[in-house]
Structure formats: structure tokens, C-alpha cells
Amino acid sequence: MDIVHDLQSIAVQEQTLVFPQFDADRAWQVGAYLHEVAKARGLAIAIDVRTFGQQLFFSALDGATPDNADWARRKGNVVAHFRRSSYAIGLRFQQSGGTLADKHGMPVSEYATHGGAFPLTVVGAGVIGSVTVSGLPQRQDHEFVVEALCAHLGHEYGKLALAKA
Fold first, then answer.
1. pLDDT digits over 124-152, tens only?
2. CATH domain 3-160 topology
3. Contact 80, 130 (CB under 8 A)
4. d(C-alpha 117, C-alpha 88), whole Å
């Protein structure tokens, strides 16, 4: 994996995967899509779709643990704070050798800079929430969310996917 290339690719993903509008029905559609695909693939994950301050969809598939739900919450907090994907923030810290605690005094009990939380961005409003998956290796968590957002927004996932590691 090339951190610089992944960061560039994530920036393109974040600029491209923008909703014209977003509401509770759309949150349910995105969450249900993630749930059905995860179930078909036999993935033991937690899925969280939220606007800042309100959880709109949550599901834990068979095999997911309470830790997965907590990781999803902590990753979503990173998106809420930085308005960027948790994977991008984690890669930036990996690149610089720092941590959230070192650089921002943010406790690991509340924030996780691991892949899987992606910003929900709406035209004219900016980042309003996050879509989060937890239970896979972090890069796969990130890409699973991107794949689902591509399906909902009509983008070809192959053009936005991170390069094979």
C-alpha cells in the first residue's frame, strides 16, 4: 500500500461521493444496502449511518461484537471532528508519526483513526454525517463503504476504488 496514493485516491472519493440531498429514508437505503451485501458475503460487521447528532441506521450482523459497534462510534467521531474519512486521517497520522492524542489531545476511548467511516456530504451543505462499517481490516472497511456509496450515487466503483494493496 502506498500512503500518498491512497490519500490522493481518498480525496477524489470524498469529492466525488456527494449526495444531492440526504434524509432518513436515504440513510435507511444506504444502511440496508450495506446490510444485504454484507449478509450475502458473510461479513461479521457493524453498520452505522448518522447525521451529526442523530443515528439513522444501525445494524450488527451475525458474528459482529459490541467492540465493532464501539469502533464504529469512535470512527464516526473522527469524521465529525475532521470532516474527512477516518482512513484518510489515520493515514495522515501514520505518515507524520503522530497520534490524535499527541497532536489534538483526543482520547482513544472516543476517537479511532482507522478506516471505515466516510463523510456524508450533501451539495450546498457540506459534510453532514458519516457512514461507518467496522469488523473488517480497516482498508476493507473503508472500501466497503465507498463501494456502497458508489452504488447509491451512480458511480462506477472500479474507477474510485483504492489501488490493490
1. 999 999 999 999 999 999 999 999 999 99
2. Beta-Lactamase (3.30.450)
3. yes
4. 10
